[in-house]
């Protein structure tokens, strides 16, 4: 969670249901989850899809790459990038209670030379020169405690996100909301990145719609994407071959679509 204002921060708590632990910010809305017997796996479908940038990345290069999360949630993406992919990983989170909860309840490791958790306003933090052009995989999941709509969702914000990326870097963003904000958000992302740089999933059953934007647009052939998807599933257990059935370019007329 992050915002350019200074709100009253909600209470952080968790609940266990079977073998899953859920993070809550003062409401019943789920802000993240963890398998108790597999704390470094990704349990929620939409969070798995936030890893779709792997379709455009060379698996052999990941150890030298940099991932950044805006909004820590239950630290699922942060843990996966740092522990499973062994990437240099930075997470930006406004609420220090969330960081404490992730360290106490969700197995978030302590900072080390390849992991840094920054307690800051994401809108301000990402404008710092030290981050510009350094991020290969940017994952944006910024919601308030009521999960109504993205907290940071302007074209200027997405332009700042684009400025973080390396030339072949990607941003994935979760656009779930109970309001009809998806199309407006998509327009803002396309305005900042260009329509030819944007890909989108169909919504999950829960209504989360993950959008991917590339710093430099590319249109791999379906065969290349399918091969990369199989590698992702084999190496890291993510259902990437299934992604290709529900993941398409925003402007498919420019090239061959990525799925049937």
UniProtKB/TrEMBL annotation:
<dbReference type="InterPro" id="IPR030374">
    <property type="entry name" value="PABS"/>
</dbReference>
<dbReference type="GO" id="GO:0004766">
    <property type="term" value="F:spermidine synthase activity"/>
</dbReference>
<dbReference type="GO" id="GO:0006596">
    <property type="term" value="P:polyamine biosynthetic process"/>
</dbReference>
<dbReference type="InterPro" id="IPR029063">
    <property type="entry name" value="SAM-dependent_MTases_sf"/>
</dbReference>
<keyword id="KW-0620">Polyamine biosynthesis</keyword>
<protein>
    <submittedName>
        <fullName>Spermidine synthase</fullName>
        <ecNumber>2.5.1.16</ecNumber>
    </submittedName>
</protein>
<keyword id="KW-0808">Transferase</keyword>
<comment type="similarity">
    <text>Belongs to the spermidine/spermine synthase family.</text>
</comment>
<feature type="domain" description="PABS">
    <location>
        <begin position="1"/>
        <end position="219"/>
    </location>
</feature>
<feature type="active site" description="Proton acceptor">
    <location>
        <position position="141"/>
    </location>
</feature>
């Amino acid at each position: 969670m992050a915002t350019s204002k200074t709100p009253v921060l909600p209470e952080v708590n968790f609940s266990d249901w079977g073998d899953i632990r859920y993070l809550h910010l003062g409401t019943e809305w789920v802000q993240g989850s963890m398998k108790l017997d597999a704390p470094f796996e990704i349990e929620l479908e939409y969070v798995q899809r936030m890893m779709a940038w792997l379709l455009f990345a060379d698996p052999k290069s990941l150890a030298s790459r940099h991932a950044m999360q805006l909004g820590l949630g239950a630290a699922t993406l942060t843990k996966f990038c740092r522990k499973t992919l062994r990437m240099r990983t930075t997470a930006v989170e406004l609420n220090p209670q969330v960081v404490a909860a992730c360290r106490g309840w969700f197995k978030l490791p302590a900072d080390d030379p390849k992991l840094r958790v920054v307690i800051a306003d994401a809108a301000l933090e990402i404008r710092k020169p030290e981050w510009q052009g350094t991020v290969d995989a940017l994952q944006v999941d910024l919601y308030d405690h009521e999960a109504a709509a993205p907290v940071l969702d302007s074209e200027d914000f997405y332009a700042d996100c684009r400025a973080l990326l390396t030339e072949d870097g990607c941003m994935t963003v979760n656009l779930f909301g109970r309001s009809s904000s998806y199309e407006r958000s998509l327009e803002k992302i396309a305005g900042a990145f260009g329509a030819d740089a944007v890909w989108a999933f169909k919504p999950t059953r829960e209504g989360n719609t993950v959008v991917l934007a590339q710093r430099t647009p590319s249109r791999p052939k379906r065969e290349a994407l399918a091969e990369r998807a199989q590698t992702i599933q084999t190496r890291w257990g993510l259902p990437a071959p299934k992604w290709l059935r529900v993941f398409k370019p925003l402007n498919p007329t420019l090239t061959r679509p990525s799925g049937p």
